[in-house]
């Protein structure tokens, strides 16, 4: 797999197909394999790039340098290195934070953004955010990353027919470097766009699962702050919609992209 040197680190990525670029950004504690169900579908018509964000997968795992701001600068430099002038950036969970920050900080690189079970202010999620930060840090420090990976994976894929998805995601999650995961999580929970969301003009699709950790109403509230956004709700899906309802997700994204053409 190729790597590019950006921002004093190396990012591992895969590159498929030809056409307008779709850049797919994974969630916290995972890798570019979050997108295994999207790559073959979209690479028939688009150039599809998946990348391991800093601290994840086969990319560099710095000791101290983490945060959405750094990940965003990584992605800007990544696009520069590949001589990509514009892309549709699709971000799942933590990847959605990076997509939002790219749209706010570097709008000239954006064709569209697609935000998947994520939000613009991880530092302003009310009691849900407070509890998540406290409970996950406590869990990590007392039970370790392997136990956390088991719990997260079960919560995302609890049904009997999802056992393979559950096991694959658990393996990805528990293979994280502890320090990289911890610092990625803490810095993510400290991040937020605040009022800058009102300045985002990029055409935006927000995808929400009906059983995500954060409610459909939570997504509706920030969609209403964006100037050019639509919301799609996918039924019978939890946080990992790109994995547990790939056909419905792919159709929603395809419809959004084709509406522009």
UniProtKB/TrEMBL annotation:
AB hydrolase-1 domain: from which residue to which, for each copy?
21-242
User: Which keywords label this protein?
Assistant: Hydrolase
Any single Pfam family the record assigns to this protein? Abhydrolase_1
Listed InterPro entries: AB_hydrolase_1, AB_hydrolase_fold, AB_hydrolase_sf
Where does the sequence pass through the membrane?
none
Q: Which domain of life is it from?
A: Bacteria
Which molecular function terms from Gene Ontology are attached?
hydrolase activity
User: By what name is this protein known?
Assistant: Alpha/beta fold hydrolase
